[in-house]
């Protein structure tokens, strides 16, 4: 199974991806985690993307598509990929479809986590307090949300017309959201 976790910044994609890894033996492909690891390592890539991430912008399509291309074979070999924070643009979605088609594979389901704007802000503030992530400040968050609305939300009709989009209520506790995702997978993925 290949699954996309879709939703605005701080909707809980990373949180739920980690639970799906445990429940289904799948591999989480988080472009955000990969980019943060590159920054932490001080690599050339990390230096290139740091200011973009800190200010809430989207990293270029080429960079994130390359990251996914590198990590996809191992994820599929291990039982399937959970795409967390990718794709975020139409170009990324088309590249992903092409990559999977080359491997005679496809996306099975796109789970959209729906969370109120107020709850998103509360989650960002909580994470900033707990982890101090450099892009969780109010200014960057505004830019991230605007990028989501302008460039990522237009992917919803792309997946809806393919019959792959399933909406899940992302409000409530982590466990409640997780139970809803599992119910959606049981219903929609054979
Ligand atoms: P990401 O790392 O993808 O960050 P995110 O969207 O903010 O987080 P996520 O939805 O995973 O939230 P989480 O589970 O952590 O991206 C960071 C940046 O990297 C982007 O802004 C961009 O610059 C760059 N980037 C990444 N991918 C890219 C791409 N494809 N193209 C271009 N650029 C890219 O949850 C958030 C908080 O809420 C946590 O503290 C969590 O504990 C809490 N939480 C989760 N579920 C909860 C619940 N049910 N109740 C209460 N709290 C909850």
From TrEMBL:
Entry binding sites for ATP: 10-15, 127, 172
Reactions this protein catalyses: AMP + ATP = 2 ADP
InterPro entries for the chain: Adenylat/UMP-CMP_kin (IPR000850), Adenylat_kinase_CS (IPR033690), P-loop_NTPase (IPR027417)
GO CC entries: cytoplasm
SUPFAM superfamilies: P-loop containing nucleoside triphosphate hydrolases (SSF52540)
Keyword hit for Cytoplasm: yes
Pathway: Purine metabolism; AMP biosynthesis via salvage pathway; AMP from ADP: step 1/1
Annotated segments matching region NMP: 30-59
Family: Belongs to the adenylate kinase family.
Protein name: Adenylate kinase
Gene name per UniProt: adk
